[in-house]
Amino acid sequence: NAGVTQTPKFQVLKTGQSMTLQCAQDMNHNSMYWYRQDPGMGLRLIYYSASEGTTDKGEVPNGYNVSRLNKREFSLRLESAAPSQTSVYFCASSENRATGEQYFGPGTRLTVT
Amino acid sequence: KNEVEQSPQNLTAQEGEFITINCSYSVGISALHWLQQHPGGGIVSLFMLSSGKKKHGRLIATINIQEKHSSLHITASHPRDSAVYICAVETSGSRLTFGEGTQLTVNP
Hints:
heterodimer, A: mainly beta, seven-stranded mixed sheet, 49% strand, B: mainly beta, 59% strand
């Protein structure tokens, strides 16, 4: 099993460009999450999906959109990238939103110039 | 004030030492998670606990719900334990709120 995979691993964007971060899990988990990690701050939740077909905002959703394409895949889209979105992005999944540990992908390092 | 505070922020130890990392939180929680972030950036879940104590190999996690405090202990520390250790609390709606992490360096 690959666990949680993310693409790309690195990306550089210019301000105003758009891109989609892809995430997939092969553990048949119901819940999936997108986090960002910035220096001096803990991980912060951007969006989550408790189950296929549902998505909800987290702590820092502005400037992002998500799509739970199916049970396996949960993508994060930046419509018009800004330098403040320079960060490391982690996707995670868990069997159930109410219980259970979260499994993290390897992360995407995004730089917006 | 952050909802989740970890101490210390940085910790350097010699191989073999007993290590304790502390986590205090200010909100009601349903569970507390300890995670390890490797130097390469990957994040692994170590423990999820809602009461008492859990042990896995040389790692022990405890939680005191009344005092809103948890500790992560590492016995017989080894250089491969060098990593960032992150505490996260699960609040209503199962959202995770993370501490800033403790950078642990274990020297041979």
